[in-house]
Design brief:
With 251 residues, this protein is mostly helical. It has ten helices and three strands; from the N terminus they run αβββααααααααα.
Length: 251
């Protein structure tokens, strides 16, 4: 008798309700997939494109399909209720894969998926006739911004160094603080939403902690201010460079 259960897949791989448990495995056909352990099983996702591996009407993602529709019909194009549900499904899929990438320290992939989510939120909210639904989408934005700031900073840390990483964290913090005002700079007036300031404050605090940890690790000595200034200028973070100049002048 053939077996259809997944006991062998779960054997020795346990769910943890305090953290994301994820792994990459090689499927029978040789492709690599990412798996997320759930309390009652697992999610298996493709590493590229949509996590479910589908191509909506031939497009790599549902977001790409929407961009095509907008290019054909212009700014008057509006989402149907079914399309809104499709957007929600794609956002949920990319969220699941994004947190797996973060848990696996695969920061370039996490950056890619966070950017996709933010771009999809922005596109969908602009073409929906339902202001309440758009506001719900915007409530998902702070978490995606938080994840993007973390992942892109850690990519920059490896590629360009500490100053570039700190600069990306500062951009994320600024974005989150703007979000906490309840309206983005170019928001439609009918899409104002009440942000969870306690959640945003927690995200800001965690990004600040990461920034301070990077700074303490890479610039541990008072005499390294000159090096910090040079790296800040190289990273084109002129606000940070100005603060370092003030510190140098105060010595």
């Amino acid at each position: 008798m053939s077996r259809d259960d997944i006991d062998d897949l779960l054997d020795g791989w346990f769910f943890d309700d305090e953290r994301v448990v994820a792994r990459q495995v090689v499927a029978a056909d040789g492709r690599t997939v990412v798996q997320m352990r759930l309390e009652l099983g697992l999610l298996q996702m493709e590493c590229g494109g949509r996590p479910d591996g589908l191509r909506p009407e031939g497009f790599e993602t549902y977001h790409e399909l929407l961009r095509d529709r907008i290019s054909q019909h212009g700014d008057a194009y509006r989402l149907s209720a079914a399309q809104c549900r499709a957007v929600e499904r794609e956002l949920l899929q990319f969220y699941h894969r994004r947190v797996c990438w973060l848990a696996l320290h695969e920061y370039a992939q996490a950056t890619r998926d966070a950017r996709h989510s933010l771009e999809l939120i922005e596109t969908a909210r602009r073409i929906t006739p339902r202001a309440a639904w758009a506001a719900e989408l915007l409530r998902q934005r702070p978490l995606a911004v938080f994840h993007l700031a973390q992942s892109v900073a850690l990519v920059e840390l490896e590629r360009r160094g500490a100053a570039a990483a700190i600069s990306k964290l500062r951009l994320g913090i600024a974005d989150l603080r703007a979000t906490s005002s309840g309206q983005l700079a170019d928001d439609r007036a009918d899409q104002r939403f009440e942000s969870d300031d306690s959640e945003v404050d927690e995200f800001v605090a965690r990004l600040e902690e990461l920034s301070e940890a990077i700074e303490a690790h890479y610039y541990p000595r008072p005499w390294s201010l000159g090096e910090r200034l040079r790296k800040a200028i190289d990273a084109e973070d002129y606000e940070l460079a100005a603060r370092i100049r003030d510190e140098l002048e105060g010595q």
